[in-house]
Amino acid sequence: MWNTIRQSQVFDDVWFYHCDQLGTPQEMSNQTGAIVWKAQYKAWGECKVEQAKSDFFENSEIISNNIRFQGQYFDGETGLHYNRYRYYSPYVGRFISKDPIGLLGGFNVYAYAPNPVDWVDPLGLNKSCPNQPMKKDHYDASSRREALRKAKQDAKIPQSQQPKITREDLDDGYGNKVMKDGQPVTTRNYHYTNTDGKQIVIQEHTYGHTKAEKIKV
């Protein structure tokens, strides 16, 4: 019988990424903590300044990094960012091909995100805001009062507590305003403090409005 011993692969260098709040690489360091790569970006992801170890020290190896916004890989031949399902242009801040689901994804089928500071789109399919707190989407109930009672119970808000009320344009969850008869739908936000001392916001969705139908697969 043959006994094959597989040799483990030895890595000469290990580099560590240092990213911003959205996962965009800002610096890379080696195992000693020395910076071997760093970059500065324009607002929509174009790399305007890039320095590697070969710039810091003479006769050193060339280190490069092609990772850009979360889920994006820089293509040196085209200058575009490969974003899994689409290509993104950092020069204009939008995709160069349409959203695969067409207008169901919004009126602007080339849009990347409402802004590049809070939002990401790792697959080129659905933008998201990772820094927003987790929230329950909705409460189904036979009445407005019952839905509010359920929401307060889940959030550990005393039922007797009276909220501070503010108004704002209703958002579809993706940075787009919800419209009715060509006008933005305004909704109420109820601000509470729960028994843990946390600030809780419950948004009312009792007003009628039109939203796109979900895709049936």
Model description:
The strands form four sheets. This protein has a four-stranded antiparallel sheet. Helices cover 7% and strands 26% of the residues. The longest helix has 11 residues. By secondary structure, it is mainly beta. It folds into two domains: 118 residues, no CATH class; 60 residues, no CATH class. It contains two helices and 13 strands. The C terminus is likely disordered.
Features:
217 residues; mainly beta; 2 domains; four-stranded antiparallel β-sheet; 2 helices; 13 strands; 26% strand
Annotate the secondary structure layout.
Layout: E1 16-19, E2 25-29, E3 35-41, E4 47-52, H1 53-56, E5 73-74, E6 81-83, E7 86-89, E8 94-95, H2 144-154, E9 164-169, E10 179-180, E11 183-184, E12 186-193, E13 199-203
Number of domains: 2
Which of globular, elongated, flat, extended, rod-shaped describes the shape?
Answer: extended
Strand line-up across the major sheet: 1-2-3-4
What is the chain-wise order of helices and strands?
EEEEHEEEEHEEEEE
Helical/strand content category: mainly beta
How far do the termini sit from each other? 53 Å
